[in-house]
Automatic annotation (TrEMBL):
<feature type="transmembrane region" description="Helical">
    <location>
        <begin position="7"/>
        <end position="29"/>
    </location>
</feature>
<keyword id="KW-1003">Cell membrane</keyword>
<keyword id="KW-0472">Membrane</keyword>
<feature type="domain" description="DUF3817">
    <location>
        <begin position="2"/>
        <end position="88"/>
    </location>
</feature>
<feature type="transmembrane region" description="Helical">
    <location>
        <begin position="35"/>
        <end position="53"/>
    </location>
</feature>
<keyword id="KW-0812">Transmembrane</keyword>
<dbReference type="InterPro" id="IPR023845">
    <property type="entry name" value="DUF3817_TM"/>
</dbReference>
<feature type="transmembrane region" description="Helical">
    <location>
        <begin position="65"/>
        <end position="84"/>
    </location>
</feature>
<dbReference type="GO" id="GO:0005886">
    <property type="term" value="C:plasma membrane"/>
</dbReference>
<keyword id="KW-1133">Transmembrane helix</keyword>
<protein>
    <submittedName>
        <fullName>Membrane protein</fullName>
    </submittedName>
</protein>
<dbReference type="Pfam" id="PF12823">
    <property type="entry name" value="DUF3817"/>
</dbReference>
Length: 106
């Protein structure tokens, strides 16, 4: 659960940065319109996957709604997903490792 969130957080963040570069090329230099369209479509699909994984992680961690919303929105702000991902991993990793160390027959 944590690994798939981390992968999608990085993929979404990198695609958003590429999209920002494409937008600069498209609107600043009037070039790369087709590439911008393709990257925007790919980012949109990947962001939807990110939303599903991030919501799943937040709901399983039993976070309040506001915190989950911030987690979901971090995929729309350039560079934010990198920082939020590190904070989420630091907070969730002890929960995951604690759940794995509990005996099944306890």
């Amino acid at each position: 659960m944590l690994t798939r969130y981390r992968v999608m957080a990085y993929v979404t963040a990198v695609m958003l940065l590429i999209l920002c570069g494409c937008m600069v090329a498209k609107y600043g230099f009037d070039t790369g319109e087709d590439l911008t369209f393709a990257v925007s479509q790919a980012h949109g699909v990947l962001y939807i996957v990110y939303l599903v994984f991030a919501f799943d992680l937040g709901s399983k961690a039993r976070w309040p709604f506001g915190k989950i919303v911030w987690l979901l929105l971090s995929g729309t702000i350039p560079f934010a997903a990198f920082f939020v991902e590190r904070k989420v991993v630091a907070e969730v990793k002890p929960l995951v490792s604690g759940a794995q160390s509990v005996p099944v027959n306890a």
